[in-house]
Every structure is written in structure tokens, then in C-alpha cells.
């Protein structure tokens, strides 16, 4: 992040972009390796990973006990919830509120979102919270 004039912070858009869909994050979830993905993208990726990694043993299916991060390939232990659906796996990873706040700040700075308390759409005109001018 580079600092610009008047106290504004310029955020590099790649920090706001999901590595799976290449769009701005929606409900970013963070894996233990600290890579983040949109909740829906991660859910789909986990579902596909389970489908490829599950092993059929007779009439039962053994689900993987590890999930591999799509960015760094770090194995993540998921044995505690591997018997649950992929949608439930996703909710086990924390919501990245820092990224959500960065997205809000960027949208405020672009005038594409208003500040809830004061309904101002200008970053510099708002007097609330950490984005005071």
C-alpha cells in the first residue's frame, strides 16, 4: 500500500482480488496458510477437491483428511470436519474482516459506497471511524 496526499491510502487491487475467480472478494475466508478466497469460490474448490480425492472402499466413501491450498499447496488438516459437506468446510475457516474493511474503504474512496452513519459517499467528507480526513 502506498500513501498518497491528504492522508488517503491507496490499496493495490491485487490484495482485494480472489485467487480463484480473479474478482474482488465476497465474504473472504482465510485458510491457516493465510491465503484468502471468496466463500463461494472456496466452497466450490473444496467440493471439487473432495470429488477428486475421495476414495471408494466397498459401499463407503473415504473423504480426504487434508485439503491443499490452491495457491501454496500447503496441506491443511480437515480431519475434524471431513465427514461434513464442502459448504460446511468453508465456514470452518474464519471470515477475513480485515479484507472486508479494505474493500469498504476502497469503495468509499471511489464513491461507490456510502458511509453508514453519515450517508456521505466521499472518503474525505466522512467524519466517522478510521477513515476520517
Automatic annotation (TrEMBL):
Q: Which domain of life is it from?
A: Eukaryota
Keyword Metal-binding listed: yes
According to the entry, every stretch annotated as the RING-type domain falls at: 18-73
InterPro entries the UniProt entry points to: TRIM45/56/19-like, Znf-RING_euk, Znf_RING, Znf_RING/FYVE/PHD, Znf_RING_CS
Q: Does the keyword Zinc apply?
A: yes
Q: Which GO terms describe its molecular function?
A: zinc ion binding
Classification via Pfam families = zf-RING_UBOX
List UniProt keywords, sorted A-Z. Metal-binding, Zinc, Zinc-finger
Q: What is this protein called?
A: Tripartite motif-containing protein 56
Q: Which organism is it from?
A: Magallana gigas (Pacific oyster)
Amino acid at each position: 500500500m502506498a500513501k498518497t496526499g491528504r492522508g488517503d491510502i491507496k490499496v493495490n487491487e491485487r490484495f482485494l482480488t480472489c485467487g480463484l475467480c480473479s474478482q474482488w472478494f465476497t465474504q473472504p475466508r482465510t485458510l491457516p496458510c493465510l491465503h484468502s478466497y471468496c466463500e463461494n469460490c472456496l466452497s466450490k474448490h473444496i467440493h471439487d477437491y473432495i470429488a477428486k480425492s475421495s476414495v471408494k472402499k466397498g459401499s463407503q466413501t473415504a473423504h480426504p483428511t487434508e485439503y491443499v491450498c490452491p495457491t501454496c499447496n500447503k496441506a491443511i488438516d480437515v480431519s475434524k470436519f471431513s465427514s461434513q459437506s464442502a459448504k460446511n468446510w468453508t465456514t470452518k475457516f474464519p471470515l477475513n474482516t480485515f479484507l472486508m474493511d479494505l474493500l469498504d474503504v476502497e469503495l468509499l474512496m471511489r464513491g461507490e459506497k456510502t458511509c453508514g452513519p453519515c450517508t456521505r459517499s466521499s472518503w474525505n467528507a466522512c467524519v466517522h471511524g478510521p477513515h476520517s480526513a
